[in-house]
Design brief:
By secondary structure, the chain is an alpha+beta fold. The chain has 17 helices and 38 strands.
């Protein structure tokens, strides 16, 4: 077994690997960029080495610097995590040449399966059905449209190298196909150093289902069941689960057998994932093989009881698999939600900055939190915006969903925007609860983008009761500490009006022993809580149900969050509420003539010039953020009257780029 391993990654996956290594008694080495000098993975490691400046092309992607870090620290092996160099055969070769073990498959398997075109050819040879499409890279827009017409629209343009949704575009017309080729090629070159793109038929209403495999160097290979990864946005997975609510035992057996067959065909040894697209008739097609640990590996660990990182390390150290296929057992259900620093209400634009508050649910046998950030730390604009993964499990799928809802309520983030509200809304969506999933779920259910009204709250009475209870507590404290003449104590009134969302809710709030009684619309609600002033979590028993809400008093407004819904409530006397109705609120003026960036990032290109007439929907500029290219389009017809930013310029949120009259 190794004495020291280096983790050639950052963030939550570096921390995740370190936890297992520490449990195994293995010393760990972290690598970090200038931007990450105070990162959590640096603090957790036994030793850390600086490998360059913030851009990954000058640090985490520089092979020689990581090899040198191994030589400096005596690391005998490298765990690559995912992303960066994890599927780079040149990296595995460079390590091998220096006598350092790559904790993953050999360079040959990385090269074959990391190239989507080569892996597709191998799948055909192995008898594993691929998605219909070309098996060669397209050279031009004309080539792409010719292939698309042969396959029939819609098609998907995909980078031959890499993964993670980068270098992928769906096209439904010739124009979209040409633009998609340009964007996919550019994005792939920046992310993977390889601009090859090929075209495949886009399967309608597809499910993305993957099979986890593990193989050793002695010819043993088993699969560990499937994961449902259909909940995606821009080809990036958002919610994953194991097992799949769609897969039956026969389909599981056949897909598992094909995954193992493919792994054997390439001589695979390590943890890997074979991804399939499955249609509504349960026909499945080989998509790609990820020759690394997956972001969503914890759901498999929860339902199998196995530590995939430990298995990777042991296999890399030359140990045989300690079990066979008949010894793999799946029990219960697990769900993972990816928590991103992004603003769902503004088109999911990435967010960066300091984490002013970051509090996570308590981990136990049913709840797990994988993270690489901490309160007071920074979310960098240079890297992937994922802050954490919440993983829950239960005996049934519904129990796992319920625990995920509770865990999301207990994840408290301030300082950057986040997608907790969106995740909660998906968890509560009837279609998700029923398991009717596809990779088009988010586009179909939120066709106009995600909006505040897409986060329904089925218990207005809960929010009103909590606001009224908090206000009563504040009034009681105020009357206790506001120096009064003895014998002339003022009593806290019982009748109040809670104003929430422009609606008035008259309530009567009384203390009854150790609980509060709130009468709303003639119905009595009972709430018991040990909440203290300043605590962001309002844990309570509401009408016999244990709940956790996030609360904050902002001057006279009570900010309350629950199940993703965020409301502001003011509690007034009946007379104050009467006067409040008379206040006239002026609308906020809209700057319709300014085109601004909805996200921080790098201005890659300005596609128009002063004096040019543009149509609604036309491309105006491209902003690169969190390693993805984002097209800024015109929202209306008009004429460009000014260009306010230059390509290569770093932009902040809402910075003006163009002026449109």
């Amino acid at each position: 077994m190794f004495n020291t391993i280096l983790i050639a990654n950052r963030g939550e996956i570096a921390c995740r690997v370190m936890k297992t290594a520490r449990r195994m008694g293995i010393r760990t080495v972290a690598v970090f960029s200038d931007e990450d000098k105070d990162a959590l993975h640096v603090q957790m490691a036994d030793e850390a080495v600086n490998i360059g400046s913030a851009p990954s092309s000058e640090s985490y992607l520089v092979i020689e610097r990581i090899v040198n870090a191994c030589l400096e620290t005596g690391a005998e092996a490298v765990h690559p995590g995912y992303g960066f160099l994890s599927e780079n055969p040149a990296f595995a070769t460079a390590l091998s040449e220096r006598g350092i073990v790559f904790i993953g498959p050999d360079a040959g398997a990385l090269e074959t399966m990391g190239d989507k075109l080569a892996s597709k050819k191998l799948a055909i040879q192995a008898g594993v059905p691929p998605i219909p499409g070309c098996a060669e890279a397209v050279k031009s827009g004309d080539d792409a449209t010719d292939i698309a017409e042969q396959l029939g629209y819609p098609v998907i343009l995909k980078a031959a190298a890499g993964g993670g949704g980068k270098g992928m575009r769906v096209a439904r017309t010739d124009a979209e196909c040409r633009e998609g080729l340009e964007r996919a090629s550019s994005e792939a070159l920046k992310s993977f150093g390889d601009d090859r793109v090929f075209v495949e038929k886009y399967v309608s209403q597809p499910r993305h289902i993957e099979i986890q495999i593990i193989a050793d160097s002695y010819g043993n290979c088993v699969h560990l069941g499937e994961r449902e990864c259909s909940l995606q946005r821009r080809h990036q997975k958002v919610i994953e689960e194991a097992p799949s609510p769609f897969v039956d035992e026969d389909l599981r057996r056949r897909m598992g057998a094909d995954a193992v067959k493919l792994a054997r065909a390439v001589g695979y040894s390590s943890v890997g994932t074979v991804e399939f697209i499955v249609d509504s008739a349960r026909n499945y097609y080989f998509l790609e093989m990820n020759t690394r640990l997956q972001v969503e590996h914890p759901v498999t660990e929860f339902v199998t009881g196995l530590d995939l990182v430990e298995l990777m390390i042991r296999v890399a150290a030359g140990e045989p698999l300690p079990f066979g296929q008949d010894e793999v057992h799946v029990s219960g259900w697990a769900i993972e939600a990816r928590v991103y620093a992004e603003d769902p209400l503004r088109g999911f634009v990435p967010s960066s900055g300091r984490l002013v508050r970051f509090m996570v649910p308590e981990e136990n046998e049913h709840v797990r939190v994988d993270t690489g950030v901490y309160e007071g730390g920074e979310v960098s604009p240079y890297y992937d915006p994922m802050m954490a993964k919440l993983i829950t499990r239960g005996a049934t799928r519904q129990e796992a969903i319920d625990r995920m809802n509770d865990a999301l309520d207990e994840l408290y983030i301030r300082g950057v925007s986040h997608n907790i509200g969106f995740l909660s809304a998906v968890m509560a969506h009837p279609r998700f609860i029923e398991g009717r999933l596809s990779t088009t779920f988010i586009d179909e259910e939120y066709p106009e983008g995600f909006r505040a009204e897409d986060i329904p709250h089925n218990s207005v009475s809960l929010l009103v009761t909590v606001a009224a209870t908090m206000h009563r507590r504040y009034m009681e404290r105020s009357y206790q500490i506001s120096g009064r003449t003895p014998g002339l104590a003022q009593a806290v009134r019982d009748d109040w009006v809670v104003v929430m969302g422009g609606v008035e809710y008259p309530v009567v709030v009384r203390i009854e022993r150790d609980l509060y009684s709130v009468v709303l619309n003639g119905e009595r609600h009972v709430i018991q809580s040990a909440w203290s002033f300043g605590n962001p979590f309002f844990r309570c028993v509401f009408d016999g149900q244990e709940l956790c809400l996030q609360v904050h008093r902002d001057n006279l407004v009570y900010r309350i969050s629950h199940r993703g819904a965020r409301v502001g409530a003011r509690v007034m006397t009946p007379r104050a509420a009467e006067l409040n109705r008379l206040i006239v609120h002026k609308p906020i003026p809209v700057r319709s003539n300014v085109v601004s960036t909805p996200m921080p990032g790098l201005l890659v290109r300005v596609s128009v010039a002063v004096g040019q007439e543009v149509d609604a929907g036309q491309e105006l500029a491209i902003v690169e953020a969190m390693k993805m290219e984002n097209i800024i389009r015109a929202k209306r017809d008009g004429t460009i009257t000014a260009v306010l930013a230059e390509p290569g310029q770093a932009l902040y949120v809402d910075q003006a780029i163009l002026q449109l009259e």
